[in-house]
Design goal:
single chain; about 375 residues; mainly beta; Lipocalin; four-stranded antiparallel β-sheet; about 0% helix; globular
Length: about 375
């Protein structure tokens, strides 16, 4: 196995916007002759709405947050205005396997019970002391040595003294958060490229082959399954489902957004986050790689196919839409919604009507030729 680079995890960076890129395979590639041109460039046409130009963006007071136990912070993926802290200095760092161009980490670490949990590309879960960075334990998620090159891409979540970790081979393993002891193992679906959502005494995870599986936290038994249409292409990773008000909302690489009843998986409604006419060179990608957000009986979601929507949670009725494409989970604070798009722009939208208050260009690649 080729040596992996080491990835540093800084405890100061718990809350961060993250994007996903296309996966690069392990085969050596022949150098491309001639000039290269950007392929991930979109022209969405979204502009600042002059009708709200005088509306002041007021946010609620920031609230201190101790834990970040799963993707999005909680099951609904809505944490509000989280306080960042005053002095942004590195407290400690630790190394795990990952970070090479051939194998990349599929999910961010989580923090709970004064511990930081992470999964490396070799399907090993690690627990560190959140205050010092001391390694507390490590646990192998895969028992045999087969398919080492396909193990990357898993994720990790925490709930009630247990850690739930996934692997690129489709395994999900429950561990004792105190010592890393294995509580149970399950293999419910295909490759898992992200972390599960934890809610209602269950785990909800989307596989790379567009299958949603609900498993019991107690023993890993399958409670129900759902699926989207098969899609032959998409970006690396999957968005974690959102859970709230008895509903599970999941996005698939087909661009489909499904809402299910949490207890039996009955489909409540569906939506498609793609446009039939998109002025972008990646219009064939319809992936929903950003996690949906449930907040105040609304669902907010954005897809790679060029559409962002606000929907009624109970009926799926569309409240508003914008022609935006992205792979980063939207963030809600007060009456405003913030999202980073695929063309590296940060948008501030009114959560009530979707009107754009301002746009900030984040600059994209520092050097496009070396991207």
């Amino acid at each position: 196995m080729k040596k992996s680079l080491k990835t540093s995890i800084a405890i100061a960076l718990v809350v961060a916007l993250s994007g996903c890129g296309a996966f690069k395979g392990g085969q050596k590639k022949t150098p491309t002759l001639g000039s290269r041109v950007p392929i991930l460039v979109a022209e969405n046409g979204a502009e600042v709405d002059k009708s709200i130009a005088d509306v002041q963006v007021l946010l609620p007071p920031p609230a201190a947050n101790v834990d970040w136990a799963q993707p999005g912070g909680n099951a609904a993926k809505s944490m509000g205005h989280v306080a960042l802290g005053t002095g942004m200095t590195r407290l400690w760092s630790a190394s795990i396997d990952g970070g090479s161009v051939r194998q990349r980490l599929g999910a961010a670490p989580v923090v709970a019970d004064n511990k930081l949990f992470a999964v490396d590309v070799d399907a090993v879960a690690h627990a560190f002391a959140a205050d010092t960075g001391k390694l507390l334990w490590s646990a192998k998620l895969i028992e045999n040595k087969d398919n080492r090159a396909a193990r990357f891409g898993g994720g990790i979540s925490y709930d009630d003294g247990k850690v739930f970790a996934t692997t690129g081979l489709g395994d999900i393993v429950a561990l004792n958060a105190a010592d890393g002891a294995v509580l149970w193992r399950a293999h419910p679906a295909g490759p898992l490229r992200g972390a599960p959502t934890v809610a209602n005494g269950a785990l909800y995870i989307v596989s790379q082959n567009n299958e949603l599986v609900a498993l019991s936290q107690a023993d890993g038994s399958i409670q129900w399954t759902g699926s989207g249409s098969l899609e032959s292409q998409g970006v690396f990773g999957v968005g974690a489902p959102a859970a709230g008000r008895g509903t599970i909302v999941a996005g698939f690489s087909s661009g489909e957004l499904y809402a299910y009843r949490y207890e039996n998986g009955r489909v409540l409604w569906t939506e498609v986050l793609s446009r039939t006419s998109v002025s972008t060179s990646v219009s064939s990608l319809t992936d929903i790689d950003a996690a949906p957000v449930i907040d105040q009986n609304r669902v907010y979601a954005v897809g790679e196919g060029g559409r962002m929507v606000s929907l009624e949670l109970t009926t799926g009725q569309r409240v508003w839409e914008q022609n935006l494409a992205g792979v980063s989970t939207p963030w809600i604070a007060g009456e405003w919604l913030f999202v980073v798009t695929e063309d590296a722009k940060l948008y501030c939208l009114s959560r009530a009507n979707g009107k754009i208050r301002w746009i900030s260009d984040l600059g994209g690649f520092k050097n496009v030729k070396k991207r």
